[in-house]
Amino acid sequence: MRRPPDRPTPQAPPSRRGVMGAALMAALAAATAGCGTAASRDPDGPLTLWSALRGTDALVAEWNARHPEDPVVFDMVTSGLAGGNAKLSNAAQAGNAPDIVSLVDADLPSFAIDGVCADLTGMVPPRLRTALGPQAWTNGEIGGRIYGIPLDLGPMLLVYREDIFAAHGIEVPTTWAEYREAARRLRRDARGVRLGTFHPNAYNVLAAHAMQSGGQWFRTDDDGWTVDFLDDPTLRVAAYWQRLVDEDLLMVAPGSSQEWMSALAGGRVASHLVGPWGLAALSRTVPDTAGRWRAAPLPQWDPDRPVVGTDGVSVHVVTADSNRKERALRFLEWLTTAPEAITARLSSGTSSLFPAAPALVDAASRQFEPDFYAGQDLYGLVTGQARLLRTGWTWGPRMQATATSLHHGLARLTYGTTITDALRAAEAETLPDMRSLGLSVRTS
């Protein structure tokens, strides 16, 4: 996906179809007309912000201390489909959505198509576009238009138990072929230990592998959407992980389950694939293993052409009904580019968020103590990996429903269903969901 131009041409609000295609339907502005109450809000009143992100309370307190003339009122929400997402949908329908909301990048298209998010393309200043860069804007753009301001980057990493690797003479794999051989060796030499885990409830991880391989589950053009969960790069990913599962080289368990966390703590799983946010999460999950873990670049399909996928990043959106958009954008520019903002957000020391703005990496790195990883320069590692992030990926317009379908299929993996079967079923169930929105959809 190309970086937005420095001087965008103003355009009318997109239609429901036209969020990613030129087929005409009722404009989003018309679709949402009458359901908002922005005109009744005081444009000079405090900005309102909903977020589930760790450290937002400290960040807002810092802003309010520095800008008492332009306060922000923060409301902590829970993450996920039944938490903040449902609350935002209900609020938007009732016309009382906040000015600003944080979203997982995969949820952005859904809220944009529903008319909840404002199109910010003509409002984002060139300095902000430059400050964040193309890898970040991939997460905030839809069809070349900006609907979200990226907060962080999420290059996938290989996190591994250095002591287990050393005890069995295993070198850190740099390719997926080496990863498979390491998995075979560990299963043979270390009874009851597996190199990694396949999580049936982690569509985001499978998607990140597809990104790295060159897959494109959703594409948009002037005629609408193309859906393809079975393109050659994705099938390569599915076949690779299926083989590891079939050879009993991986633990198969849901992410965040007690079964999996117990295996991590007990040394029965020797590595983990995750984005930068997961570095701190792992240290909280298995604190008694401190000092035994290291992080490494993600293995590659082709080391001469390295690329990595994204796992777990967030964007902030300004809601379409807000009548404080310029003020909201001023706050979001500070939030994403000011050293004091990232310092406040990460001041608890319990987050390893990697900022989208390169200028904030040094400030962020000083807030996370890497003792769990034996003092390793984690932010230096991630900086290098972030340069390899795949751009141009597009999430689907009902990604939570797609994810649920995929998870249902993957949950039957140990009963004979294959990863390819799960992908095929998820694609089949995604198509009618998209068409029910009035979108023009086809398969490759």
TrEMBL record:
Highest taxon in the source lineage: Bacteria
InterPro entries (UniProt xref): Bact_solute-bd_prot1 (IPR050490), SBP (IPR006059), TAT_signal (IPR006311)
SUPFAM superfamilies linked: Periplasmic binding protein-like II
Pfam families associated with the record: SBP_bac_1
Keyword annotations of the record: Cell membrane, Lipoprotein, Membrane, Palmitate, Signal
Gene3D superfamilies: Periplasmic binding protein-like II
Secretion signal, residue range per the UniProt entry: 1-33
PANTHER family xrefs: ARABINOSE-BINDING PROTEIN-RELATED (PTHR43649), POLYGALACTURONAN_RHAMNOGALACTURONAN-BINDING PROTEIN YTCQ (PTHR43649:SF33)
The protein's name in its UniProt record: Extracellular solute-binding protein
